[in-house]
Structure to design on (1316 residues):
């Protein structure tokens, strides 16, 4: 048995581990829980009184999210001040340190990465401002079990403040947009109720102080997603899509349950006086300090990755996300592009200590997370090519971009990933709402049969969509360029001109990212052509949407232009130093709960090459659609969407590839047909037949035999041996049954009698023999 | 008042329903309205007693028996009339007191065929006495009597007011549970004689077993007897087959009471009697209980997926849910048993509600065939939403009560009590987590088929399909409010149970084994428990972490 040395630390004393959090700070930061509370109240208000309000509850939802947005902005400003000027006391964590380090086997790999990260941490020490960024934490007891208090509360730092801003802003715009888009809907009030509930849950998620709270909010956003995907549940495809989303997420949530559990006990094992802890700050801190076994962290991180894969649409659990487009378009913009689907990315960013140590991100060239992200980004981008539904193009694009973020976190480029999350929220929401605007006009999402030439009729939608597309494709100086370029640099795989530093040499990820950049530019060009160019292929008279749709589009387009400027690269000579890396400075924690990571240096050569790649991808698609297809259209006099004898009809290989893409890599077939169908069909039927015939059959036969022998025993033994017992049971049944006794009581009495007799005899036997 | 509650509170509460029964026996059968009012008034009085008890309950001493009474009852076998209430029984007693009046209100205007409110309500009140008594009894003979009192009214309820196949179902229910009870009684008697206890009072038995001890073999057999008795009642796989039949055939209120309270008698027996009295046998049996629990979770879920009858599906889901409860219990940790009690209360509320809804759907559509249902949200939108909420609660959505029974149970299986095989329980944990996926599958599938979509042609124009009625609202609202309230603030239950569970568990199971020196371990006398399972070393390694 190991002997242990307890280090008990007073809060704020020098012993114990510095957690990087404080219980002080501005009032707004400590009380950030007000922000989710407001939409939560509005949910209840809309649910119970919405139908009686003049605008059917929409006004309440908009007011609540509006207030939440204002509070989020104020909280953000308070954070800027806190980050630079707060000098309060830091909370320390008392830990149990175990002697006998020799007894514990480190595997080689872990030691390597550990050294590496310590070394790299050293070299980076001058990188940040001298004082660390203390997150603000404020908790109350949620419940107690086994004498341990489990708390609920807020953990406010740059990451959560940024998320508060993004969620409330996009949510507010989506609310306003929705009053037009779903105006007159059969469940208008319920729609706004669920938007409020979603906002409340998502905001709770981003300020979660502990993993249990995170898990709760995680599932709540999932159920809101379920309800809103299935908003028009009268049609079976919609409810099917909702079910698929929920069930796929449940598969990932299994990993979340297990991962959270492992971390809970692993952390508990190094804390005195408690057997577990959900605290995010404590979990990260003990992980960063190498107090947890590498195996535990690896298993936990792998389990949590399953949850990320389902929630953030990563390959191979991404298949629910395109189907989720069955929901109303504003919902797709808010939940399935800008906010909920980034919850997985957010969780990695939040628990980065666990992932960084567990997956040995530092000093490696490949790991599970980077690989999942890399594959996802390619799978998503390739599938976006073959869609004819404009929302599905955007859905696969979202999958691809989420893959980018996960890839970035996988290579250690934390700030780049979070920054991409930030910029992506704006341009993707802009694109989704733009697609909704078009669909609102033509009453269809099918680009090939019902769109085309929309640029004339819908100038605002057209312009904002173009801005969003360029931002997504990543052309300078729009938002997507900056964040994408940081991710590519962050891979550290750019060896051509001396490397960019970073946490390892993830060359494979750099290549994957580059290919995706080209593909993204190409499929967006295709999408823009099919929607806005050529001749109109739909029916009826189309016109531009109203102000409640157009104004949110322009706001988001504006942000898609400027958002990238928040994090201009360090050493970007065209602007003064004080404009560089503002986002990184305020958002990336420099604290005990955040691992020491290395930062890549921006590279002009990489930026230029990646831009050329984007232009190359766009040009190829431009040549195909804007030149060849356009010319063929003119020649045939019809508005075409593909060349009449294009590559898929000419080349067998192209045809095969197209077919595989068309069938979505056959994953749906595997999940819905084989796994779900097999469980629901043969497996369930087999279990049930076993139940009825074997288990229940046995019971029945035992019963029949008992009845027969019981009759015999009753006749011969009953009256003689257990008269008293019979009377007792008889009295009971007469009290209870009254006149009903006639029906069965004869039998019941005899069974009861046999029973008492048997019990007495058996007890006797048991006492005698043992 | 205070003295009255202290001395007489529990007795009055338990037997008040019998007073109501006596009154009702004097009222002629034809005066149905009076019968209903009397029954409701009685059950409400019981609830008022419950509230009075609650106000006097010392929440800082949940681990102690409060309002305890102890008198010689059957002198010749040293059986006492011993009653008491602690944090473990309080939530279940309150649940019973809540369910009974709401069931009476629910059946107000639609008693199942063949009507006869007098007999029906008398049975419900007898049930109430039996259920409350079981949760309060501190003497094993008394416990057994109450345990059995419950059986007959439920038997008649199914046999008389049940569905088409009621005779088979009721007899099966009765015989199966009686069979279990017999073995349980055998165990009680054997325990009393072998331990040399002064009486059948639980605390005497615990003291006698720990000072005199019973042989390992005897302990195992005695535990096995209780295991069968309680396990059949829970019901645990593979003793569950009475349940779907009983539930499917029982009248709505019968199903609700069966699900909400009766099943808990079994799990309560485990944590009140079996584990505290025989901790060593419990440690040996625990992996098997855990195994049956996780089989039940998966198997129950698969059973659900194969159903076409809504009520039978909900019944099968009980097998899965009670599997989580048993998994929590089998960890023999404070954490796990707290989760189990939470699971019992949550399952009582949620599954009770689901059976209410099934009953109301049956009344409107005259069928529960899932293939024929559909569009409930269109025809009865409020009921559809309530149904949706209960489905979400049942699949363990955080923020609703079901989650707090499920997740902590899964969590506790990661680190079971001292002396239990850790690896085995971790496998159980992963399998039970898979159960949450299947639960979402069968419940959402049910919701989709019954509530989404559009109504089938045969029901599209049916005027008898109305939304939630006044009586339904009154009887459902408290259930729904509690499902949400406990979901948001689980401490409502955990705060009450924690102390009592802690007090009931053997010290050796509780302490952090890695923090014990060998001397301390010996002083506690834990060696016998710790060495029961061979991969104990494994446990220690994990405990110690790095």
């Amino acid at each position: 048995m190991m002997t242990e040395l307890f280090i008990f630390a007073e809060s704020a004393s020098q012993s114990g581990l510095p957690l990087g959090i404080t219980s002080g700070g501005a009032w707004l930061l400590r009380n950030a829980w007000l922000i989710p509370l407001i939409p939560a109240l509005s949910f209840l208000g809309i649910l119970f009184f919405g139908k009686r309000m003049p605008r059917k509850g929409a006004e309440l939802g908009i007011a609540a999210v509006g207030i939440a947005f204002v509070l989020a902005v104020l909280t953000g400003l308070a954070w800027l001040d806190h980050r630079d000027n707060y000098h309060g006391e830091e909370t320390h964590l008392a830990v149990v340190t175990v002697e006998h380090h020799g007894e514990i086997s480190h595997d080689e790999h872990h030691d390597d990465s550990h050294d590496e990260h310590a070394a790299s941490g050293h070299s980076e020490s001058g990188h940040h401002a001298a004082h660390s960024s203390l997150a603000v934490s404020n908790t109350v007891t949620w419940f107690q079990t086994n004498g341990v208090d489990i708390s609920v509360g807020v953990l406010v730092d740059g990451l959560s403040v940024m998320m508060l801003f993004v969620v409330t802003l996009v949510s507010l715009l989506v609310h306003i947009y929705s009053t037009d888009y779903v105006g007159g809907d059969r469940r208008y009030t319920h729609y706004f109720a669920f938007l409020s509930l979603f906002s409340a849950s998502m905001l709770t998620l981003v300020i979660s102080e502990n993993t249990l709270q995170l898990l709760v909010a995680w599932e709540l956003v999932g159920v809101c997603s379920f309800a809103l995907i299935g908003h028009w549940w009268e049609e079976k495809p919609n409810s099917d899509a909702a079910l698929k989303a929920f069930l796929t997420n449940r598969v990932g949530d299994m990993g979340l349950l297990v991962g959270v559990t492992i971390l809970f006990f692993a952390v508990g094992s190094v804390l005195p006086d408690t057997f577990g802890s959900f605290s995010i700050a404590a979990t990260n801190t003990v992980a960063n300090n190498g107090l947890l076994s590498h195996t535990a962290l690896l298993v936990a991180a792998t389990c949590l990755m399953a949850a990320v894969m389902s929630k953030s649409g990563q390959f191979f659990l991404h298949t629910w996300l395109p189907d989720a487009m069955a929901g109303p378009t504003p919902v797709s913009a808010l939940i399935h592009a800008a906010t909920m689907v980034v919850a997985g990315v957010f969780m990695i960013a939040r628990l980065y200590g666990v992932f960084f140590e567990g997956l040995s991100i530092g000093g490696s060239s490949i790991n599970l997370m980077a690989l999942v992200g890399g594959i996802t980004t390619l799978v998503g981008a390739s599938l976006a090519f073959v869609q004819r539904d404009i929302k599905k193009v955007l859905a696969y694009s979202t999958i691809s971009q989420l893959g980018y973020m996960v890839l970035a976190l996988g290579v250690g480029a934390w700030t780049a990933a979070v920054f991409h999350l930030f910029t992506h929220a704006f341009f993707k929401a802009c694109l989704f709402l733009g697609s909704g605007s078009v669909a609102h006009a033509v009453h269809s999402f099918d680009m090939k049969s019902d769109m085309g030439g929309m640029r004339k009729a819908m100038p605002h939608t057209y312009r904002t969509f173009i801005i969003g597309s360029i931002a997504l494709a990543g052309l300078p100086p729009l938002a997507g360029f900056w964040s994408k370029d940081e991710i590519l640099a962050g891979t550290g795989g750019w060896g051509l001109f001396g490397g960019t530093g970073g946490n390892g040499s993830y060359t494979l990820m750099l290549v994957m990212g580059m290919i995706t950049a080209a593909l993204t530019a190409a499929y967006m060009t295709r999408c823009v052509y099919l929607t806005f160019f050529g001749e109109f292929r739909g029916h009826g008279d189309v016109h531009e949407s109203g102000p409640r749709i157009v104004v949110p589009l322009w706001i988001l387009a504006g942000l898609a232009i400027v958002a990238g400027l928040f994090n201009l690269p360090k050493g970007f000579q065209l602007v003064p130093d004080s404009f560089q890396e503002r986002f990184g400075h305020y958002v990336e924690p420099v604290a005990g709960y955040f691992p020491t990571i290395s930062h890549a240096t921006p590279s002009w050569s990489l930026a230029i090459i990646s831009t050329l790649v984007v232009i190359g991808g766009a040009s190829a698609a431009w040549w195909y659609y804007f030149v060849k297809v356009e010319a063929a259209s003119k020649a045939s006099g019809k508005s075409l969407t593909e060349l009449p004898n294009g590559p898929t009809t000419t080349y067998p290989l192209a045809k095969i590839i197209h077919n595989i893409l068309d069938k979505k890599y056959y994953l749906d077939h595997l999940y819905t047909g084989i796994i779900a169908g097999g469980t629901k069909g043969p497996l369930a039927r087999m279990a049930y037949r076993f139940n009825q015939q074997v288990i229940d059959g046995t019971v029945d036969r035992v019963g029949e035999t008992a009845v027969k022998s019981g009759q015999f025993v009753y006749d011969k033994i009953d009256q003689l041996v257990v008269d008293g017992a019979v009377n007792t049971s008889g009295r009971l049944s007469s009290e209870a049954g009254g006149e009903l006794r006639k029906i069965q009581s004869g039998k019941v009495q005899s069974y009861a009698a046999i029973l008492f007799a048997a019990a007495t005899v058996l007890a006797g036997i048991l006492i005698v023999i043992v | 008042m205070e003295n009255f509650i202290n001395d007489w509170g529990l007795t009055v509460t338990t037997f008040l329903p019998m007073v109501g029964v006596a009154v009702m026996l004097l009222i002629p059968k034809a005066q149905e309205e009076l019968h209903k009012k009397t029954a409701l008034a009685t059950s409400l009085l019981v609830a008022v007693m419950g509230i009075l008890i609650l106000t006097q309950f010392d929440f800082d001493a949940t681990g102690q028996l409060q309002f305890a009474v102890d008198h010689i009852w059957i002198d010749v076998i040293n059986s006492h009339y011993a009653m008491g209430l602690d944090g473990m029984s309080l939530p279940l007693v309150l649940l019973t007191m809540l369910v009974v009046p709401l069931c009476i209100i629910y059946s107000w205007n639609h008693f199942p065929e063949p009507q006869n409110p007098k007999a029906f309500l008398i049975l419900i009140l007898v049930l109430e006495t039996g259920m409350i008594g079981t949760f309060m009894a501190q003497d094993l003979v008394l416990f057994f009597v109450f345990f059995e009192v419950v059986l007959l009214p439920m038997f008649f309820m199914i046999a008389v007011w049940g569905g088409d196949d009621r005779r088979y179902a009721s007899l099966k229910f009765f015989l199966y549970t009686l069979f279990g009870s017999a073995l349980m009684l055998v165990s009680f008697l054997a325990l009393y004689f072998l331990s040399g206890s002064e009486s059948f009072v639980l605390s005497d038995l615990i003291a006698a077993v720990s000072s005199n001890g019973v042989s390992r073999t005897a302990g195992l057999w005695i535990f096995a007897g209780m295991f069968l008795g309680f396990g059949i009642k829970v019901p645990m796989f593979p003793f569950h087959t009475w349940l779907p039949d009983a539930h499917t055939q029982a009248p709505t209120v019968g199903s609700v009471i069966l699900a909400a309270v009766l099943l808990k008698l079994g799990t309560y027996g485990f944590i009140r009697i079996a584990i505290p009295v025989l901790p060593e046998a419990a440690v040996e049996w625990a992996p098997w209980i855990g195994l049956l629990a996780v089989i039940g979770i998966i198997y129950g879920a698969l059973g659900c997926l194969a159903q076409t009858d809504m009520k039978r599906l909900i019944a099968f889901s009980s097998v899965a849910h009670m599997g989580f409860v048993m998994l929590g219990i089998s960890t023999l940790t404070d954490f796990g048993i707290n989760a189990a009690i939470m699971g019992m209360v949550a399952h009582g509320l949620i599954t009770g509600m689901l059976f209410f809804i099934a009953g109301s759907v049956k009344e409107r559509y005259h069928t529960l065939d899932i293939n024929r249902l559909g569009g409930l949200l269109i025809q009865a939108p409020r009921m559809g939403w309530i149904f949706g909420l209960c489905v979400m609660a049942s699949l363990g959505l955080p923020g609703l009560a079901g989650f707090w029974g499920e997740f902590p149970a899964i969590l506790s299986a990661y680190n079971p009590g001292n002396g239990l095989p850790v690896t085995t329980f971790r496998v159980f944990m992963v399998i039970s987590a898979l159960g949450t996926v299947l639960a979402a599958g069968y419940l959402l599938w049910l919701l989709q088929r019954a509530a989404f979509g559009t109504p089938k042609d045969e029901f599209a124009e049916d005027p008898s399909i109305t939304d939630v009625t006044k009586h339904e609202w009154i009887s459902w609202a408290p259930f729904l409010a509690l499902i949400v309230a406990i979901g948001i603030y689980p401490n409502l239950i955990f705060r009450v149970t924690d102390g009592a569970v802690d007090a009931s568990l053997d010290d050796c199971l509780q302490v952090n084994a890695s923090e014990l020196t060998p001397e301390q371990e010996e002083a506690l006398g834990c060696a016998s428990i710790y060495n029961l399972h061979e991969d104990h070393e494994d446990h220690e390694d994990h405990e110690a972490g790095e």
Chain A touches chain B through 85 residues (CB under 8 Å). Residues 694-769 of chain A form one domain. The mean pLDDT of chain A is 79.
